[in-house]
Amino acid sequence: VLPDLSPDLDAARQCLAQVFGFSGFRGVQDQVVGRVLGGHSTLAVMPTGAGKSLTYQLPAVMLPGTCVVVSPLIALMHDQLRSATANGIRAAALTSVDTDREWTIERFRNGELDLLYVAPERASQPHFRELLGKAPLALFAIDEAHCVSEWGHDFRPDYRLLRPLMDAFPQVPRLALTATADRHTRADILEQLGIPHDGLIVAGFDRPNIQYRIVPRDNPLRQLTRLLADNPGPGVVYAPTRAQVEKLAEQLGDTGRRVLPYHAGLPAETRAANQEAFVTSEDMVIVATVAFGMGIDKPDVRFVAHAGLPKSIEGYYQETGRAGRDGDPSVALLLWGADDFARARQRLSEVDQSRQQGERTRLDALAGLVETAGCRRAVLLRHFGEDPPPTCGNCDNCLEPPGLTDATELARKLLSAVYRTGQSYGLGHLEKVLTGVADERVTARGHDQLSVFGIVPADQAPLLKTLARALQARGSLVPTEHGGLALGGDARDILKGLAQVEVVLPPAKERGGRH
Ligand code: ADP
Ligand code: ZN
């Protein structure tokens, strides 16, 4: 039975205003803080930007003793430390790079710290357990708690040592925090960290002010230039490689906007300066690899664009989630190409056998998101275990429902052309064969003699590109080493008439910008 939490929450609201300067709790913060103040172990699943750190920092300030925070990244830890200290919270970190360790230990033992950040490796060291025994403890906070699960995407074996460590202090409540956890991973985290099942609190993942737009990449520079023109506020453009970051930053800079690059290959000072410039700017665009964004606190980002396919739906959600934290209308634009899927499926074949199934599932989920003719938000939220309404009114497909056409017959023609030409030609050649263009290359290979020569009427020819893209996204067509196309996935089922293919009709006009 939960104790009456209202008196605690009144005190918590006061502290929230006085120490953090916030006028109220957001989302499930009050639920989480209430449980923690009541001494109940909790797993809080809250999307990035929902304000996870507050849920342990506030109890850390209010409760006697220290809140020990386990966090996997030193850089992240130091960001948190800086902002806590700026709020007047007594905080320190014990890591290999912190030099004032003696003093920190002294303060910890004397109960003079609200927060002590440690890396998970420390949990395995016997003298750390000893130290915990000598200091007054208020709470264990485990940040990025999905690292404890092999089901998560970021397993850290050291996290497994936390349970035995915390079990030695059964009176101290535990608060595990993560932004990414499907049902499976959640159950595993509860298990691995010894948190009761009724201690799970999941925040809604919906970000209603973000408008999702997902369109084929035909001319990225033009598509992004238009996005910039429609959205004068600050924005992030994610590009897959450092080289692409450099190039896009330069090209987009020509539009007159202030555009700076950010990637791990830049000197540390340049990175820091560019990040700082972005954070303080009201109209700047930063072109970056996914290295950018972790721990960055900028509420007024008006758009996040992806120039290439993200790694997973989780990654997409996290990266687009950096837009519009202030709640104002914001845009998330994803430009994708068949080659993105081709590369991703290629990489799939190179990963460890044991990880292949998981990776394939992740990629299929992503394909489902880009290929859907339905609501993008519904696909996203269902992925995170929610039960959303079928339409949202604020994504490209809801705003302009695309036409959907049954392309099974055309798919069978395309796949048989791939098969009959020996699974080694690219789309250009296949299009010629199918539409009956007997150029030199076609006749030299005898492809004008095949039964598939000229079987696609001219009015259907324009759909071949869209279809090939969709078939690559779903894996029915896979690239060969030499840039040709081969059959894959369910291609044989399609050929045999056992599987259907529907494609989203290409829009009459560009759907890249805002309306
Ligand atoms: P997360 O770790 O969940 O990604 P953070 O803890 O970094 O999120 O918080 C995101 C932002 O929200 C920060 O700028 C933080 O100061 C702000 N924030 C957190 N809680 C509140 C609140 N109750 N009211 C206003 N802003 C808040
Ligand atoms: Zn929608």
Automatic annotation (TrEMBL):
Domain of life: Bacteria
Top EC group: isomerase
Keywords: ATP-binding, DNA damage, DNA recombination, DNA repair, DNA-binding, Helicase, Hydrolase, Isomerase, Metal-binding, Nucleotide-binding, Zinc
Record-annotated Helicase C-terminal domain positions: 220-367
Lineage summary: Bacteria, Pseudomonadati, Pseudomonadota, Alphaproteobacteria, Sphingomonadales
EC identifiers of the protein: 5.6.2.4
Family the entry assigns: Belongs to the helicase family. RecQ subfamily.
Protein name per UniProt: DNA helicase RecQ
Location of the Helicase ATP-binding domain: 33-199
Cofactors named for this entry: Mg(2+); Zn(2+)
Matches recorded under PANTHER family: ATP-DEPENDENT DNA HELICASE Q1, DNA HELICASE RECQ FAMILY MEMBER
UniProt xrefs under SMART domains: DEXDc (SM00487), HELICc (SM00490), HRDC (SM00341), RQC (SM00956)
GO molecular function, one term: helicase activity
Catalysed reactions, as listed in the record: Couples ATP hydrolysis with the unwinding of duplex DNA by translocating in the 3'-5' direction
Species this protein is from: Novosphingobium pokkalii
InterPro entries for this protein: DEAD/DEAH_box_helicase_dom, DNA_helicase_ATP-dep_RecQ, DNA_helicase_ATP-dep_RecQ_bac, Helicase_ATP-bd, Helicase_C-like, HRDC-like_sf, HRDC_dom, HRDC_dom_sf
